[in-house]
Write a structure and sequence with these properties.
The protein is of the alpha/beta class. The chain is built from 8 helices and 5 strands. Strands 3-2-1-4-5 form a 5-stranded parallel sheet, sandwiched between helices. Strand 1 (3-6), helix 1 and strand 2 (29-35) form a beta-alpha-beta unit. The longest helix has 15 residues, at 108-122.
């Protein structure tokens, strides 16, 4: 079986890549990364380094025009918006009706998985791995395209839409960030090559929600995070 891994350059997707290689063999694995107009564009450079480490082919695709409609997402470079360093609970308190948190990229996983499905059909790949995980607390509701409900529905749609040729697999779907890092360490994932931060500076900020989740998980495990932070 040949598989495609949706790779952002972060811990979750890199762990998925390691699991796919372990199960299917590196010769049967390809990775794909997307430029969707993100501010933290350096994550794509980290994805390249990770693929070099694992000796797998990386497809890079520019879909930034697809997200040019979004005016309320601070993750996108065309929006002059500051990312919040508040906790998700505090951000939720300040949300107006029908609003999303400022770091939510509208239906990003759905769009990317649909493109992956088209690529997989064309290139005889049978499975798409991606790295959604169990969001804690209110974050589960703030990122609906990372939910177990989304994963189940999207898989059914891709199976049906591909004529049962392609399916998706989310091996980390029921794991917390702490559990994923423990798994990554057990699998010798090169965590020093991963990029988690929402910023695009030389060092990770250590303050955004993504950084704080990572820092907290390493601390709970009693492990040293191999990357450096500005703070």
């Amino acid at each position: 079986m040949k598989v495609l891994v949706l790779l952002s350059g972060g811990i979750d997707s890199t762990t998925c890549l390691a699991l796919a290689i372990e199960k299917h063999g590196r010769e049967n694995v390809e990775a794909i990364s997307f430029n969707y107009g993100q501010k933290n564009i350096k994550e794509l450079a980290h994805a390249k380094e990770i693929c070099k480490f694992y000796h797998v082919n990386l497809i890079e695709m520019d879909i930034s025009k697809l997200f040019s409609f979004s005016k309320k997402c601070a993750m996108l470079s065309h929006n002059n918006l500051e990312l919040s360093h508040q906790t998700y609970d505090k951000q939720f308190e300040n949300l107006k009706e029908n609003e999303n948190v400022i770091s939510n990229v509208p239906f990003r996983n759905g769009i990317m998985l649909s493109i992956c499905a088209g690529y997989a059909i064309e290139n005889n790949l049978s499975k798409i791995y991606y790295g959604i995980h169990r969001e804690e607390g209110i974050a589960y509701d703030l990122y609906p395209d990372c939910s177990t409900e989304f994963n189940k529905s999207m898989n059914e749609a891709i199976i049906a839409g591909s004529g049962r040729k392609v399916e998706i697999e989310a091996p980390l779907c029921n794991l917390s960030k702490r559990e994923i890092i423990k798994l990554a360490v057990d699998k010798n994932v090169p965590l020093d090559l991963t990029w988690t931060c929402y910023d695009n500076e030389e060092l990770a900020c250590g303050l955004c929600n993504s950084c704080t989740d990572r820092i907290k998980a390493f601390k709970e495990l009693g492990l040293i995070d191999p990357i450096k932070y500005r703070r």
